[in-house]
Give the backbone structure.
Amino acid sequence: MSQGQETPLVLDRNRLVWIKSSVSSSGVTDDCVEVATTETHVAVRDSKDPEPMIVVPGRSWQALLSSHLPAH
């Protein structure tokens, strides 16, 4: 592997525990985005089409969430 490349991430889909937002489970529709976490990464998928998923480093996920918090 050349310098600057990261080791490919391999996730066992069968071991991921998906969490659905309580807002998404309001009874109107169960369509939502689901999230699963590992020690280092966060996986995101669409509940209607769960096969494809996006996997990002945990730090990137935290930065995304922090950037959307309202200012106090």
In short: Helices lie at 58-67.
